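Progress report, Aim 2. The chain analyzed during this reporting quarter is listed below.
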Amino acid sequence: MALPSSGNPISILDLAREKVYDDYDDPRKPLGSLYNSAGVNKFPFPLDGKSWEDGKGGRNMVLTRDTGQGIGVAGSGNSSLKMACDGGSDPYTYTYAGNDDYDNIVAATTGNTWTFSCYAKTTNGTTTTGQLFIFEADDNGGYLAHTSNTIFTITDEWQRFEVTRTMNSAACENVQVRLDGPNAGAIVNIWWDGFQVEEASSATALTMNGPFSLTDLVEGNDDEGSSVDWEATNTNSASEPDTSTPHAMSEWYDYDHDAAPAPSAQILLHSNGSDPGTTDSYSFSSEGVYGFSSVYRVVISNTAGSTNIVGNDGDFGLAAEGADVTPDNYAVSTSAKTIAVQYATFYFRVRRDIPAGIGSDTVTITVTPAGSGVQTDSIAITFNWNTLGGE
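Predicted C-alpha cells for the chain:
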C-alpha cells in the first residue's frame, strides 16, 4: 500500500493509480479512455492507439496493438500502437483526409489553436526519426491544411513530442492527426502511446479527462460521467472497497490490486476425478486384516506453502504422498502430515485394522493449504464391518 500519510493531499487520480498499480506516486495513468467532449483531452483512446487507428492501416507499415510496450503496465489492458515500418519511404498512418467522420478527433473553427502530443520509443538501443501532423478538415472530414513538427529523433526511451496549429481555413470544422515514421525509409519498429489532442498552444500534462468519482473506482464503470474505463475491483483483496454508498477514501487504505485468490483445497476421487462430497464409506467382512479406503486426489489452488493433512481418529492410519498415486506411508491419522509446497496435486488414503464382530468407525480427514483466508476441505470416511459370517 502506498497512500500518503495523514494530512498530505490526495486526488481521485491518485486513488486510481493506487488501484491499478499499488502505487499512488506512479506517473502512469489509469486504463484506456472513451471520448469525452467536456474533458481537456479530446483523443478517443489515449492509451490504446490501435482502437483509434481501427484498421485504417498506413503507408509502408503494419500497425498492431502491443500490450508489452505501453506506458502503462504490460498485460493490464493498456497497450501501445506498434508501427512496423517496412523500409519504404515516408511511412505514415491513414488517419486523416479520408472524407470519413471517424478520422475527426474534435470539432474546431477558424482561430482555434490545437496541440497534438504523444509518446514514442523504439527498443534495444535503436534510434530512428518521426513526425507528428495536425490537420484541418471540413465537415465531411476532407483535408484542408496541416502543420507538421520538425523531424525528431526517437530512441529506446519514452519521449513526448508535440505539434501545434492555429486553424485558418474558413471551412475548418474538425481536427485530424497523423503519425509518421522515418522519411528516408528504414526497417524499424516504433511504439506510440499517451495520445492527447487539446485546445492549447502547447502540450499540457497527459490527462484521461474526467470528472472521476469514487463510485467509478469501486464499481469499475463510468456511470458518473468519467471518461475512464476503470478495471473491476479485485475482490480477492482482503480489504476491498465495500459496495455501500457513499464511498470513502478510507475504503482503499489496504486495497491490494494484485491480490491472488486465497489458497483452496479440493478432495476428489482418484479413480474418476469426481467430488465425493463430505462423506464416503466402505464395508469389510474379514477380521484381522487391514481395510483400505479408495485413493483420493487433492488439488490445491494458488499454493502458498506446504499443505497440512490430518485425521481425528487414532484407530486409522493415514497415507499421503505428493508423487505416489498409491500412497502407503501410513501414520496415525491424528498426527498431521505435511505435503511439500511443490505439490499442487497429491494423493491420500486411510486404513484401519478390522476387528472381530460388527462395528463402524469414522475418521474425518481435513486438508488445509498454507496461507491466510484459506479454504479447507474435509471428508468423513466410515468403515463398516461384519466379520461374523452373516450373523
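DSSP finds three helices and 23 strands in the chain. The helical segments are 12-21, 49-53, 214-219. These observations will guide the mutagenesis work planned for the next reporting period.
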